[in-house]
Amino acid sequence: MSNPILESAPLGPRWPCLDPFLFCAHHDDSYPASDGKMGVQAVELEGREMGSDFSAKDGFSMYHGDSVPGFPGHPHRGFETVTLVRKGLIDHSDSLGAAARFGGGDVQWLTAGKGIQHSEMFPLLNADRPNPLELFQIWLNLPARSKMVAPHFTMFWNERIPRLEHADATGKKTTVTVVAGELPGTERPLMPPPESWAAQSEGDVAIWTLALESGARWTMPRAKGEGTHRMLYFFVGQSLQIAGQDVESHQAMHIAAHSDLELVNTGGDTVELLLLQGRPIGEPVAQYGPFVMNTQQEIMQAMQDYRRTEFGGWPWQQNDPVHGAENRRFARYPGAAEDDLQPEAPTR
């Protein structure tokens, strides 16, 4: 076949996306031991622009956090966030009253809709050893008809996410983790929030992570929908082939969506990939910071609404709440009287 890689670009802090996706960030922070209060030891914070630190100095950023790294309370309207945590923990709090601590393969899916405030803090629980954190945050657009739906909070626990484990003729293994979309050979797919573009059959949305052992071969099946976009991000490993085309550096690739493509790990280490797939919504996008609408007038309205209503207000005492020093995962959904306890995340 002709070259399956239609376009490519090197990976940076923000990875290029195609409609219906708006944004993909890969946060990979080597946080040190904590100060005993879930924050970074004070000596490590010298020379940073505190409150807006994206420096990656000493291997980590504080982002908008003060003592605890992360993103204190902030608003969103008009799209969804999908957060995949590979290492470490995130403490979520929002204006619906929902709260969660999740990590180690868990996924949070948040529909902002007509407006929500939330915080995403990174508590450092280990005072005697480092606290690495690695995650993807993906922004998925909403069509105009769904931009003003009620906000929705969903958790997908690592143990319940479908996976395909495929051994090729030589016994080399490929593992595909299916956060969204269908993949033959896996269990029943997860159900995205009801108003999500991923919940619509015409959306053809898929969010997968792939891990190929050294020498492993796996054929990625073609997308179902006409006009579907596929972005494949090569972010771990030495080299691979896509339908015979060599890829020897980490990059974002717009790949052919309507052909089966054989992936081969041609390097000595495991190769890891992220796939973002979807049929374009095909509507105008107007964005101002945390608001994504269709027109500038709607952006102005979002700003006015937020100043007037604060999207339901903020029910937490702090702007950057964390959920205690206990190493556990949990979710408390809006209106729930008790926490939904989950077992400790597996070690990755």
From TrEMBL:
<dbReference type="InterPro" id="IPR014710">
    <property type="entry name" value="RmlC-like_jellyroll"/>
</dbReference>
<dbReference type="InterPro" id="IPR003829">
    <property type="entry name" value="Pirin_N_dom"/>
</dbReference>
<comment type="similarity">
    <text>Belongs to the pirin family.</text>
</comment>
<dbReference type="InterPro" id="IPR012093">
    <property type="entry name" value="Pirin"/>
</dbReference>
<dbReference type="InterPro" id="IPR008778">
    <property type="entry name" value="Pirin_C_dom"/>
</dbReference>
<dbReference type="Pfam" id="PF05726">
    <property type="entry name" value="Pirin_C"/>
</dbReference>
<dbReference type="InterPro" id="IPR011051">
    <property type="entry name" value="RmlC_Cupin_sf"/>
</dbReference>
<feature type="domain" description="Pirin C-terminal">
    <location>
        <begin position="208"/>
        <end position="312"/>
    </location>
</feature>
<feature type="domain" description="Pirin N-terminal">
    <location>
        <begin position="47"/>
        <end position="140"/>
    </location>
</feature>
<protein>
    <submittedName>
        <fullName>Pirin family protein</fullName>
    </submittedName>
</protein>
<dbReference type="Pfam" id="PF02678">
    <property type="entry name" value="Pirin"/>
</dbReference>
